[in-house]
Amino acid sequence: xxxxxPTLVHLDADAFFVSCELALRPDLRxxxxxxxxxxxxxxxxxxxxxxxxxxxxxxxxxxxxKVCPDLILLPHTSGLYGKVSHQMFDLCETLTPLVQRNSxxxxxxxxxxxxxxxxxEVEAKVRGxxxxxxxxxxVPVSFGLATNKLVAQIASKLRKPRGFVVVPPGTEASxxxxxxxxxxxxxxxxxxxxxxxxxxxxxxxxxxxxxxxxLKRIFGDSWREMLATARGEDDRxxxxxxxxxxxxxxxxxxxxxxxxxAEIERIVKRMVDDLLPKIREDRKRVRTMTVKVRYSDFSQxxxxxxxxxxxxxxAPFYPLxxxxxxxxxxxxxxxxxxxxxxxxxxxxxxxxxxxxxSEEKRRRLAGVLDALNKGGRTPVVQHGHQLAKRRAxx
Length: 394
Known about the structure:
Elements: E1 8-13, H1 16-24, E2 33-36, E3 43-46, H2 48-51, H3 61-67, E4 72-74, H4 80-92, E5 99-103, E6 106-110, H5 119-137, E7 141-146, H6 149-156, E8 164-166, H7 172-176, H8 189-199, H9 204-207, H10 212-219, H11 223-230, E9 247-258, H12 261-281, E10 284-295, E11 300-311, H13 318-328, E12 335-347, H14 357-373, H15 384-392
Parallel strand pairs: 2-4, 7-8
Antiparallel strand pairs: 1-6, 1-7, 2-3, 5-6, 9-12, 10-11, 10-12
Helix pairs in contact: 4-5, 10-11, 12-13
């Protein structure tokens, strides 16, 4: 896709979970803090001050406390991150209707339909959005501006936090050339080490110096794709999903692959806790829950199950978490990513039958708790699996 201006924007929120918590606790800004459980939990997000001391995601909490003894641990606030993510992308849609919500803290914007006439105008608009996200949500965000998704994504991650990198049209290949090969999406630490040690490919530009035969020997059938990537070529469009009635989803990409089933199960249940209040807020009900897992080689598997009756309550979905995870996670290799998706969405304004009276009482109670929990750092009520985790870490 040829663009005369860098109108393809990648948004990447900085230390998103921690940033959401610090919006509620501004007194902790500038400190070494992280979101995670105390005893057998992991660090799900760490401030940049904590990262400078060697704390990373998903480091076991006990190890993080040894690496950084003065680390301040913040408990996960149920429902907060999904709410802030929704507000963040809603603000993006005030700039352009073409917004792709990739994950809870990352996405793409396409400003091409906005009629901007210069790179300076594009930059000014995106910097204005960056300021609004901070002023209104107190969430720091990094942006990459380029002519395609690939280059914009790499650019957004180069100068975090609060980065702002613009790659002018026609400079994509030269921009990528001096960067380490590990900066390319999909090139993990092991792959990078093999490329360096076995083939002398340290920088992205080194790919372009190899002959066709060498590229075939190194990358096999995907050598053309790798060469195009090293040149900064990408024609993927921004894919918008504005219809809330289709599905609700959330995913988490780990800084390091996780192989602990119990920890992944807790993360999936946390996603259920984040998504169901949004479903109730939209006056919807869902019937189908799908779990997706992704491995370090980017292969993935999914498994779903559909309830007989649509619901907007967490309880019917909790028993599905473990069996769905077991069915999807067949290879039992450590995971790079896990996601939850609720679909088969229906309006909640349906006629209740007499035997559904107890469920409606639970729904009204859930609505009250949603209202009480909204905006608070510590939920008024914790679900059973959250209470168990909190007791373990107390």
